[in-house]
């Protein structure tokens, strides 16, 4: 004979007479001796009396169908049921166990520690000590004892399918078992014990006992976490044969048949085959989600395709999408309540058919469920109108064509609208001067001071927008130094859009546009700068150059005069302009400087 090996440690098992089982000589693990089923045709030792009739079996299945929203809504109404009660041969195992266990329990606590990080201090990177917190788990060993009793059922026949075996694990009526008498199963089929029980259909009783003991042992767990569970259990087994009453209900629905097995002592305890899905519920949910999903996707795509994602996320558009999701929830809620009412009404009608008490509270008459749900239809119509209006707004909303943003810049800030590039034409009409430059040409310095005291208001930016704008300004300045005008324009445009009060970004943007040859764009950018800060000297100087190169001599001359008027050192400013005019080949800006700095003609003295 082959030696029996312990499954826990691999040592040899020996028979322990006091335990009536096999015990390991090394780790003392007890392995029960598998019980032998009664021979074929032999009666069981105990029987659980059948206390549910055929009509109660059928009604238990109908009640289960009415509460299951995953099956068709009309299944409880249209299913045709046929019932057959029988006794199943089983082996009842009374298991008493004593277990010793060890484990580690973890208790969480928060502790502070000092970490060193790199920080910018006075323009230099330094290692700075920072206090942080973290969660630490203190592990503590623990041990203990556990003892208890289990009752397990093993099927000892060969006719019950695998789908019905979970019912045996949920039978709590084993305490109702009484000594076997043939009178208890009069008129009810009884399945004989099989000489070779179909044990492959379910895990062995020993395996299930180990799992149940493990679950009971882990109930002693403490702390926030547990690990390193180990236990040794000694068990004693008392096995008897018992007949268990079960009702098999055949469900005929939609041209197909499904089986249900019901506890013979409690018709609320049952298991079934895989039942047909509720396609009506699924189709209703899919149709309802079309409108909000379409609106959400359209809004997100519009934002990603636009040059300003946040600009597309307007309040009214977000409100429209939110309203669609709320309408969907309302629509599904109405459908759920109507389906529930239909099921309960069908169950109440069929309860009378099977002579069972109607469910309480009694449902209202189901006449209102006849015909379409007008409210749901109205919700669908309103959702369609909202989607059409939103799509119309997204399609017809005027927006500049998108400009691709490099990945490094896109991670730092949302995509901004591209700067329009104007093609310089050989002949351009003169643009009218703004009021402040008209006052400069008229030498009306009092009016100039009045206009300077009325700068254009700027929108207050958020902290994150201001910090991102400052970061992009630094990138733009680096690009200008590297003579990468296009990249500088992109960074500075985003910086200006995020924070309109970033005057340095506006000034550098004008310089970058001039470097790219877009003089009209430079005039517009510098004009916005001077509207917000009329006393910006560098802005007036750059405006004079941009206007001159854009063939707007009047604006160039007036800007130079404004520069000289605001300069704290007019002589030094004049000298710098003269040097600029004299350097290199003559251009329109040099001509403007020459016109403005041309000495006035001396008046002849009268004799």
Tags for this entry?
single chain, TPR-like_helical_dom_sf, 4 domains, 607 residues
Describe, in short, the structure shown.
By secondary structure, the chain is of the alpha+beta class. The chain is built from 19 helices and eleven strands.
Helix content: 40-55%
Biggest sheet overview:
8 strands, mixed
Instruction: Report how far apart the termini are.
Output: 151 Å
Name the poorly predicted regions.
400-427
Tally of individual domains? 4
SS class: alpha+beta
- Which whole number gives the mean pLDDT? 80
> Helices and strands, in N-to-C order?
EEEEHHEEHEEHEEEHHHHHHHHHHHHHHH
Work out the radius of gyration.
44 Å
TPR repeats: 503-536
Protein name: Tetratricopeptide repeat protein
Keywords: Membrane, TPR repeat, Transmembrane, Transmembrane helix
Organism: Massilia violaceinigra
Give the topology, please.
Blueprint: E1 13-16, E2 21-24, E3 30-31, E4 46-47, H1 54-67, H2 75-78, E5 80-121, E6 124-155, H3 166-169, E7 178-179, E8 189-190, H4 205-217, E9 225-253, E10 256-263, E11 266-272, H5 279-305, H6 309-312, H7 315-353, H8 374-396, H9 407-410, H10 435-441, H11 445-452, H12 463-481, H13 485-498, H14 503-515, H15 519-532, H16 537-549, H17 553-566, H18 570-582, H19 588-597
Parallel strand pairs: 4-9, 5-8
Antiparallel strand pairs: 1-2, 2-3, 4-7, 5-6, 5-9, 9-10, 10-11
